[in-house]
């Protein structure tokens, strides 16, 4: 009986983490840059804003984050901060144009 219950628990845990974990496209440029153009579906949290760490800490650490900025430096900074906060699934896409090519996306508004 114990083995069956343990298996059921592990199965539910696996399904739950798969269902609720998602890919998140994170644009760490300024709100002004984001409003001019961004990748479709991206969320915007400005890495240079003093509340970046606080806002990022509210995100789900089980999700997978693909991070980009304008040229790549801010994305690298954001990934470093997020990794220090315990995020594990991080991809530094570099700059905006590089991210478009990597993800095969056109800009959105």
From TrEMBL:
<protein>
    <recommendedName>
        <fullName>Rhodanese domain-containing protein</fullName>
    </recommendedName>
</protein>
<dbReference type="InterPro" id="IPR036873">
    <property type="entry name" value="Rhodanese-like_dom_sf"/>
</dbReference>
<dbReference type="InterPro" id="IPR001763">
    <property type="entry name" value="Rhodanese-like_dom"/>
</dbReference>
<dbReference type="GO" id="GO:0004792">
    <property type="term" value="F:thiosulfate-cyanide sulfurtransferase activity"/>
</dbReference>
<dbReference type="Pfam" id="PF00581">
    <property type="entry name" value="Rhodanese"/>
</dbReference>
<dbReference type="InterPro" id="IPR001307">
    <property type="entry name" value="Thiosulphate_STrfase_CS"/>
</dbReference>
<feature type="domain" description="Rhodanese">
    <location>
        <begin position="19"/>
        <end position="101"/>
    </location>
</feature>
<dbReference type="InterPro" id="IPR052367">
    <property type="entry name" value="Thiosulfate_ST/Rhodanese-like"/>
</dbReference>
């Amino acid at each position: 009986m114990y083995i069956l219950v343990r298996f059921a628990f592990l199965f539910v845990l696996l399904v739950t983490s798969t269902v609720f974990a998602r890919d998140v496209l994170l644009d760490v440029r300024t709100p002004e840059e984001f409003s001019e153009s961004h990748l479709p579906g991206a969320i915007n949290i400005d890495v240079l804003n003093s509340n970046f760490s606080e806002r990022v800490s509210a995100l789900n650490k089980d999700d997978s984050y693909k991070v980009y900025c304008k040229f790549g430096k801010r994305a690298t900074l954001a990934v470093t901060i997020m990794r220090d906060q315990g995020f594990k699934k991080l991809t530094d896409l570099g700059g905006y144009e590089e991210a478009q090519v990597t993800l095969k996306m056109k800009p959105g508004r």
